[in-house]
Amino acid sequence: MCLRLYLDGDGNARRTHISLFFVLMRGEYDAILKFPFYFKVIFCLYDQTDEKNHIIDAFQPDEKSNSFQRPRSDMNIASGIPKFAPVTMFQQENNPYIRDNTMFIKVMIDFGDMCKTILPYALSLNPGLTNQIQQSMIRKELEKANNNDKNQSMKIDLQSNTRLLDVSSNKKNRHIDLLDTDINHMKD
């Protein structure tokens, strides 16, 4: 696979946006890979300042498109995000995305179902770490996030009377509020 970047845009985004496209290429292992390619593709343009306001966008491949079938030539037709970011962002004097005439773009393939809340963490990991280490760190962060979610709210059913136990916390103290709720109005 490869990435195509059009700094002055492509198609209906010409001269207004930079365009990013994902391309499947023929490879020596195609015979044992599963097609069509159906994993979510995530693009990240790095903010090179301490602000870390990365530009992140993603798309889910259309499994019926020829772009995601087993390549029959060297490269399939590119598919992606024509309007990834406005060109005007890069024309500003001190834009955070270009430093020393260089920009950094990361492409991630989401083989699982990475939630949006964990995505900034995953993209902030040191790209010098091996994929195995990065995946391990992401798994640990997901476990931590799931444990926090479970601790933040619990539902308690007391016979025919239903109550919602809301556990809220801040850095200084914890408090627990019992809220009466009508079972007919309670939504998950």
Provide structural commentary.
Helix content is 17%, strand content 31%. By secondary structure, it is of the alpha+beta class. The protein has a domain at 2-124: Apoptosis, Tumor Necrosis Factor Receptor Associated Protein 2, Chain A (Sandwich), CATH 2.60.210.10. Mean pLDDT is 79; it is low at 153-188.
Summarize the structure.
With 188 residues, the protein is of the alpha+beta class. Helices cover 17% and strands 31% of the residues. It has a three-stranded antiparallel sheet with strand order 1-2-5. A three-stranded antiparallel sheet has the order 4-3-6, with no helix packed on it. A three-stranded antiparallel sheet has the order 7-8-9.
Tag the structure with descriptive keywords.
alpha+beta, Apoptosis, Tumor Necrosis Factor Receptor Associated Protein 2, Chain A, 3 helices, 9 strands, 17% helix, disordered C terminus
Q: Indicate the structural class.
A: alpha+beta
Global geometry: globular
Strand content: 25-35%
Low-confidence stretches: 153-188
Oligomeric nature of the chains: single chain
Q: Give me the side-by-side strand order of the main sheet.
A: 1-2-5
- SSE arrangement, N to C: EEEEEHEHHEEE
Report the strand count.
9
Give the CATH topology of the domain at 2-124: Apoptosis, Tumor Necrosis Factor Receptor Associated Protein 2, Chain A
Mean pLDDT: 79
Under CATH at level 1, the class of the domain at 2-124 stands as: Mainly Beta
- By CATH's scheme, which homologous superfamily of the domain at 2-124 applies? Apoptosis, Tumor Necrosis Factor Receptor Associated Protein 2, Chain A
Q: Level of helix content?
A: 10-25%
Query: What separation lies between the terminal Cα atoms?
Result: 41 Å
Alpha-carbon Rg, integer: 22 Å
- DSSP helix count? 3
The CATH architecture assignment of the domain at 2-124 turns out to be Sandwich
Main pleated-sheet profile: 3 strands, antiparallel
